[in-house]
Amino acid sequence: MAIGGLISNRSFGSFIGSGKVCQGEQAILLHKGERSGIAVLHGNMFYRKLWSQTENGFLSGYTCGRYLRSTVHLDENTLKPLSVSPNGRQLISSVSLCHCKKTHKVSPRQRSRGSFGYYSFSSPVPGGCLEPSDKDGIGKNSTSAYYKSEEYDITEAKVDSFPSPDGTNEAILVGGDMQEAVPLWQDFPKRWVIVLLCFAAFLLCNMDRVNMSIAILPMSKEFNWNSATVGLIQSSFFWGYLLTQILGGIWADKIGGKLVLGFGVVWWSVATVLTPIAARFGLPFLLIMRAFMGIGEGVAMPAMNNLLSKWIPVSERSRSLALVYSGMYLGSVIGLAFSPILINKFGWPSVFYSFGSLGSIWFALWLRKAYSSPKEDPELSKEEKKIIMGGSISREPVTVIPWRLILSKAPVWALIISHFCHNWGTFILLTWMPTYYNQVLKFNLTESGLLCVLPWLTMAAFANVGGWIADTLVSKGLSVTTVRKIMQSIGFLGPAFFLTQLIHVKTPAMAVLCMACSQGSDAFSQSGLYSNHQDIGPRYAGVLLGLSNTAGVLAGVFGTAATGYILQRGSWNDVFKVSVALYIIGTLVWNLFSTGEKVLD
């Protein structure tokens, strides 16, 4: 029969001395009837036995670590583990031996929830070693030792040991995977540590980007800039941003996402901190610094896409990307909310100094915790590596980018065209929204600023909702292609519907509701086209996102300019009609030519 047991996988440095449990060793409780003892493990070996046999029939001391990690079922004949099942993060406690005259306890320092199983077997010889030949004594007439959920100071425990009659310390190979117990936070899946670090990077990305939209007001007064100059400064960011979209994807696919994203965050953080200094030197220096900042932020999305294509299995792809992109939305909320406070208290330069300095904290964590792929992470568990590699494909680095092959695929062009159509409407709403609130809905500037935060919050919430829905559908057997088409269709047709309603609404409250719903449904695109780069070409995910996002940025630049031209000759209804038309074109292209299957190897 198999024997159930609990093994403490912690070191026991508190028991130093002959016959005690020494530093670096581990122990398990052994007992039979009124004879109980400790088997000491050194690594994965039964190293020696410490027996305690008293007339009262209880163990006079115990050696236990702070955590019980595994239940090990041993083979009756060989004593090798048949299976190892985790018990979770459990706290060790007093030992209560059944059928004994007494129960030995050590005063507890702290109580904790939970209960434990038992370790039950015996040895035929007092002070002897458990060997395969002892099978007759295993599991017969044995007493169970139950561990109650109480934590003790193990430094107070003592073990009364009896040496083996022959004076030897024999060893029996146990085998099995006895993992060292670690705190709960260290058991957090490593792939989601990468996701959270990317989330933080994107949070900083938009915080550093939107602070200029607030700081530009006092800056223009101080330096006497006119509207044309302000527009030039705002647009200078995109000069660098466009430059590194494709280059960032190439670098990430060739040398790894860790280096590229780390470079990007450090680069744009330094540029943010230097912005006030450049402004005081003169306008040309400020324009160059803003372009430099765009260079750093331009590599972020391709590098992140490369990283997640290697770390995240397809069953978790949508929710991971949704979480990362929601960092951008929340970064805008934080930037817009805290910039005015900092400016009022410390002046406009404080926004750039404080926001930019946060990048150093992120970079320190990034260097310590991040790796470009699971293969490079020495701390990654075998179980998690199996999950990641089982749900992903080849992780070999890219040496040559097959441009002809990439540009010959219809799903690639579906991505590029759809990204353009999507960003046209998105950039218009986000750029011109304060003006719409002020001119059409007659809100004052303070109300307009506060309401500008609402769409970002809505997008952050619905992006994660869409991600969980998409991954759930995939896990239930729906094809990735179908899921991507459903989610992106919502991302196109939802905004199109709510923009058409804006033409008919009569009250400001309904207009704000339509705008919020439009952006909320738009966020489902994170589980559609934004996840599709990794579907169709995981090895070239960085390059693919660089290509499509270049089209998306161009849509933002041209769409913002075209909106101003339309408003000079028409109305807001005309602006919304153009966006709706592009949303419908994007829907048709996406559903006709996109796929969730791999087309680039």
UniProtKB/TrEMBL annotation:
Keywords: Membrane, Transmembrane, Transmembrane helix. It is a multi-pass membrane protein. Residues 194-598 form the Major facilitator superfamily (MFS) profile domain. It comes from the Eukaryota. CDD domains: MFS_SLC17A9_like. It is found in: Membrane. Pfam families: MFS_1. Its main location: membrane. The chain crosses the membrane at residues 192-212, 232-252, 259-279, 285-308, 320-342, 348-367, 412-433, 453-474, 486-503, 540-567, 574-593. Belongs to the major facilitator superfamily. Sodium/anion cotransporter (TC 2.A.1.14) family. PANTHER family: ASCORBATE TRANSPORTER, CHLOROPLASTIC, SOLUTE CARRIER FAMILY 17. This is Ascorbate transporter, chloroplastic isoform X1.
